[in-house]
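The freezer alarm interrupted the setup, so I double-checked each line after restarting. Inputs confirmed:
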Amino acid sequence: MNKQRVDGHTSQAYDAEMNQVVNHVLEMGELVTQQVEKALQAFIHSDSALAQQVVEKDHLVNKMEVDIDNECVQILVRRQPAAGDLRAVIAVIKTIKDVERIGDQAKRIARLALKASESDQMMAPKEFNEFQTMGSRVLEMLRGAMQAFRKMDAEDALSVALLDKQIDNDYEAILRQNMTYMLEDPRNITRIVEMTWAGRAIERIGDHARNICEYTIYFVKGQDVRHQDDSVLEATVKGR
Amino acid sequence: MGAMQMTFSDEKKPTPTSGKVKMAARDVKVFYGDNEAIHGVNMDIMENEVVAFIGPSGCGKSTFLRCLNRMNDTIDICRVTGKVTLDERDIYDKSLDVVQLRAQVGMVFQKPNPFPKSIYENIVYGPKLHGLVNSKSDMDEIVESSLQRAGLWKEVKDRLDSPGTGLSGGQQQRLCIARAIAVSPEVILMDEPCSALDPIATSIIEELIDELKGSYTIAIVTHNMQQAARVSDKTAFFHMGDLVEISETREIFTNPKDRRTEDYITGRFG
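Predicted 3D structure, all chains:
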């Protein structure tokens, strides 16, 4: 049993409430994915207008978190969910916390982009190659995490969670590469430090995306797999 | 200054039971005429444990509960096969005194049913029948201790001579529990004991169950899933005469193993 559902209750109103909360999480995930995508673009192209947009939209993400939390509280108090439904609500409450933090990281990257756009230090596009690869990878991971949540599919969640390793590797590669750039051309140090910070933010987004996958696995399988090695996640998803 | 260390353990809180099987059922089947209502139930009920029986109406949970003190004997067309033991002794053994068994395995019903007698008489009726009391002072003592244990003493101690039927519903149910306790049972069976009570009276009974489990083993049938979740150590889910699943209550309500259990407790039965 690697899939779950939140509908099928005798009470259609209950189904509607559960579906609504899941849809709102997906909307929040969609908004945050866009925020990350725009923040990365803004950083790479020193696009201050786009960066400004990301910073200004962050409050919407925060508001969605509060609203969804309230919906979950209402379900808890009215329905007293049990088993899979209870795990769904708990998973949602945890998921939106991580989604909101991904939003914060997007804002952080956007702020770095604003700073960069004010600076006169210019970097060659090739110096962004690694950064761009890492950014694409985290976007893929984030979309995958939300997709696995939408499908309530533990196997999908597992394969996405395992991608986090690559992002950690990407980050280490960027650190090494940036060190070389700084040694090569000390005039770019400020800009490269900023890129390192942005890389760190992407790495954190990867961690949050993995957390989201872990909540989906918890929801589907009933096993809490937080703070566990990949092998435990695999055993949990494939074992039962 | 000593450092205060806090630890959060995810280990299961051990149920304060002795680890001893108090009652056991093996391949218990119940027939009403030709109709098999319970299909071979196996269950161990541990000493000082509260086990809740849940399931949709007609699933056999009350029927099974009534096997545990042979209340089904009172129904002519009802026949029980298999084995039920209390402290390893077969309770369907021909040589066993059923009246004595029902003192050892007491029962509290859905609707409070005090005898149409005084509060005092309600309590001493059983002990007198079983020859547990010899003097007025014995009776006074058993009345006070039973009512104390049932959490009713303070409310009725000044009107022990007034009729039991004059009490509120919740008080009547506690009187019935006191009456069951008065004959020193080892197991108490409760068949939806709170279904006729308001939420306050219900929480008083639930609190009482929590206190009583230190001294007794309790099996409770309930339609209120939250009640099962609140009061029991283990929960057994019955469906169409089968015991589908019995497990730690925390497991059943967060991660049941059987799809039917999940569907029932999450409200997905059509």
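Quick read of the result. Helices of chain A lie at 12-44, 48-79, 83-118, 129-151, 154-161, 164-184, 189-221, 230-239.
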